[in-house]
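Progress against Task 2.4 (sequence-to-structure conversion) is shown through the following example record, which the project officer requested during the mid-term review.
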Amino acid sequence: MRPPHPVPSPADYVRLALRGWILIVAVTLLSGVAGFAVWATADTTYSSRFDLFAVIDGPTNPRAAAQNDLGGRVRIPTYADLATSPEIAAKANELLGGSAPDLAAHVTATQRIDSVLLTVAVDADNRADAERRVTAVAGALVAVSRQLENNDELGPQAQLVPVGSAYPAVAVHSSLVRDVGLAAAVGFVWGVIGVIALGLLGDRVLHRRQVDTVVAQVRAGVAGRVS
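Structure tokens generated for the chain above:
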């Protein structure tokens, strides 16, 4: 059957969606439950951090110290990029005996708010591996920094120095609110689309004015035949 004119307006679609609110609520709730199930069954990962301090070789007077601090801060972004490079991952993997071939994909490095501190983090499937791997990455980064900054006559002019040891690994969970909320939102959208689609496929009359239009068309047709 051809749909009556005028075509449905936005208000008609809203009205149709409200008629199917039970289905929309059901789909939204089921999607939220599915999101919770995904969150509850997701694998837990562990992350460990290691802090490194950029040191610039030079005089110790106040003016030189300020210049050295600036030089260290300028170098940190480069060291951060180096920390996540395949070269550092390969060197760290050698220190680990080849047990982490995909290490580069699990390394992050961040600068502490425009400072000379670099924090390297590594995630793994268990606490021990996370701590061992971040220690290996930090060691590889220190060694490479010394090589890059080395002067044949004066030795390393700058380098990264470890600050303590690796932090104890902590469990990293995805956000429950985010996972459930996102799943529920997707369910709500699909619920609304489904209700509207079912209504249109069922060729429902959405508003009284559509009936009035059909009646007017029939009357016009009858009047035309009579004349």
